[in-house]
Amino acid sequence: xxxxxxxxxxxxxxxxxxxxxxxxxxxxxxxxxxxxxxxxxxxxxxxxxxxxxxxxxxxxxxxxxxxxxxxxxxxxxxxxxxxxxxxxxxxxxxxxxxxxxxxxxxxxxxx
Length: 111
Fold this sequence. Notes:
By secondary structure, the chain is mainly α. It has one domain (14-110). It is 77% helix and 0% strand. The protein contains four helices and no strands. It has helices at 16-29, 31-44, 51-76, 79-110. The longest helix has 32 residues, at 79-110.
């Protein structure tokens, strides 16, 4: 993430159905998204939670993910937001790398 932050992105225009299908397939077959969510949940929540509390956390996480990615898709489909992201990509990627690295170190240090 850190090294690829300077890589330029080219906007891709696809039909909505194809873009939706591609997004669902990428997320459904990408173990990194599941592992990331699990790592965050393991670090943040206590290990002795009840099964009901764990289920509530998972359902809440799913609802937030669906709402967030739907809003992200709508926002990024506008040229103003898309161009703004492309200008700030370096800083967003670097900040994300720092957050993920910090969570990973916290996980290693605490377990």
